[in-house]
Design a protein that fits this description.
This protein is 34% helix and 31% strand. The protein is α/β, with parallel strands linked by helices. A five-stranded mixed sheet has the order 3-2-1-4-5, sandwiched between helices. The protein has a five-stranded mixed sheet with strand order 8-7-6-9-10. It starts with a strand and ends with a helix. The C terminus is likely disordered.
Length: 242
């Protein structure tokens, strides 16, 4: 199966072309750019490198979230447009799982990828390797960093992500006496190759119904709900999908 993988969920931008689990071409940058401008040229470049044509792929795999609101919208919209126009399968993968996939560990280690969500909150999940497969054992969530540390207390933990450094002081205090480590800086950069290999194992989704997984409402929505509490109750299911 030939796959186009797209990750614009955070500051890094990564795209790749795979055939099953073989990497054909990949373009990853950590330089802060406007993803809306840089994404399509990056995709065009890997098609040139691999000598594939867009119509030759079988599915599009995209980092579905959590992450940057703008980045997720750009990646998901592009993936949906390509899948629809080329009549190809579409698959979404957790942006946190992509980070976890880049770190090999024994079966006892809990991999905890972390994205800064501001105001001492994070997006985080828990993953473990089981017989060569990456398993999600702690659901992706939007949570305060202190509560996250309480959830994983007593476990052998490996934190992953460039944003972990922002919580270094809290880590020493909250995880005092616990067995934990921080993955290398190289592992903190999400790779579209890892995204593609994870997407290879998932079932295709309905293109029209596919949406980003923000895991929280936007600040504007939060302020609106405070001003309109009754409307918030009325549209509760809409809010919960984030």
């Amino acid at each position: 199966m030939k796959i186009l993988a797209i990750d614009t969920s955070n500051r890094p931008l990564s795209v790749a072309l795979l055939e099953d689990q073989t990497l054909l071409a990949e373009n990853t940058t950590t330089v802060s750019k406007n993803h809306s401008v840089a994404l399509m040229p990056a995709i065009e470049e890997i098609f040139k490198q691999s000598q594939l044509k867009p119509e030759e792929i079988d599915r599009v795999v995209v980092a579905q979230g959590p992450g940057s609101y703008t980045g997720l919208r750009i990646g998901v919209t592009t993936a949906k447009t390509l899948a629809y126009s080329l009549n190809k399968e579409l698959v979404g993968v957790s942006s946190l799982a992509v980070l976890a996939k880049g770190v090999q560990a024994d079966a006892k280690t809990l991999l905890v990828p972390v994205f800064d969500a501001r105001r001492d909150n994070v997006f985080a999940g828990g993953y473990m390797w089981d017989d060569g497969q990456l398993k999600n054992v702690l659901p992706d969530q939007h949570i305060s960093f202190s509560k996250l540390c309480k959830q994983i207390m007593g476990k052998e933990v490996c934190f992953i992500g460039a944003d972990v450094a922002k919580f270094a002081g809290q880590l020493k205090e909250l995880m005092a006496g616990q067995d934990y480590r921080i993955a290398s800086a190289e592992s903190a950069v999400p790779r579209a190759f890892n995204l593609g290999t994870l997407g290879l194992l998932k079932e295709a989704e309905n293109v029209n119904d596919f949406v980003p997984r923000y895991l929280r409402i936007t600040q504007a929505e939060s302020q609106w709900l405070k001003r309109n509490p009754q409307e918030g109750k009325k549209h509760g299911p809409y809010v919960k999908k984030y």
